[in-house]
Amino acid sequence: MDTMNILSGGAAQGLVRGLAEAFRAQTGFAIDGEFSAVGAMADKLRAGAPADLVILTQALVAKLAEEKLVILPSIADVGRVETALAVRSRDPRVTVKTEADLREVLRAADAIFVPDITASTAGRHVAKVLDQLGIAYEVTSRLKIFPDGATAMRDLAASPAQRPIGCTQATEIIATDGIALSGSLPPGCELVTMYTTGVTMRAAHPKEAAALVTLLAGADQRELRRRVGFAS
User: I need a surface site. Which of 128, 164, 209, 228 has the fewest CB within 10 A?
Assistant: First the structure.
């Protein structure tokens, strides 16, 4: 079977998985690819990694189009995803309505599971929020940093810690067994990110890649996007 290769932020993995059968029925192609921190995926494309399509943040896709790595007319917004809090399914949910609430929740955690704090959207935001709350130095030893949010959430699910918590994209939380979406970040700490897709300049299968863009961003898949954690 022919294969469509993609490079994607981890936030879109659940959506791609949910569309795989429809895409195969429409085109005869399977979907393969890599899902990780958006910065790392963009760098892979720049380094020449084979990819027919990317799903990254809106800003990164626009930058890749400027660099002549993504076809500008092919670009389409997929939807917005919020960075949120996660707990193990068996643990009590946490509610944070203010920055003070979030500060206390993070201080109380004995392990904080996050994606890459330099290359991932959510990870960079977590680092910024910790600085903003004035607790970055205090909690550094408790940070459990992983290449992407999906890996961080799987390790959170298996964590032996007493009071662990996670923070990453809502879509990655929803897609992970043993993890529960615990709530949004409070005003002043929130982050909502638009994810965007586009066909790469070096696409081996540009026609099929364009069909996948339509599936990812089309109105027919609005309910699936909502179910896997996209806000719009």
Answer: 128
Structure tokens at 150: 């999906």
Q: Among 145, 156, 147, which residue's Cα sits nearest to residue 179?
A: 156
Does residue 81 contact residue 230 with C-beta atoms inside 8 Å? yes
The CATH architecture to which 3-80+193-228 belongs is 3-Layer(aba) Sandwich (3.40)
Check whether 232 has a pLDDT greater than 70: no
Residue 86 and residue 156 in contact, taking contact as beta carbons nearer than 8 Å: yes
> For the segment 125-170, what is each residue's pLDDT rounded down to a tens digit?
999 999 999 999 999 999 999 999 999 999 999 999 999 999 999 9
Residues 105 and 96 sit within 8 Å (Cβ to Cβ): yes
Tokens of residue 108, six digits: 């109380």
Which secondary-structure segment (H or E) carries 54? strand 53-57
For residue 95, what pLDDT is reported? 87
pTM of structure:
0.90
In angstroms, the CA 85 to CA 165 distance is 7
**Rounded (5°) CA angle 4-232-58:** 60
What is the three-class DSSP state of 105? helix
Give the Cβ contact number of residue 132 at 10 Å. 14
In the numeric block, which tokens belong to residue 208?
């099929």
Q: Which long-range contacts (CB under 8 A, 24 or more apart) does 159-162 make?
A: 159/88, 159/111, 159/113, 161/109, 161/110, 161/111, 162/110
CATH architecture of 81-184: 3-Layer(aba) Sandwich (3.40)
Give which of 82, 87, 79 is closest to 161, Cα–Cα. 87
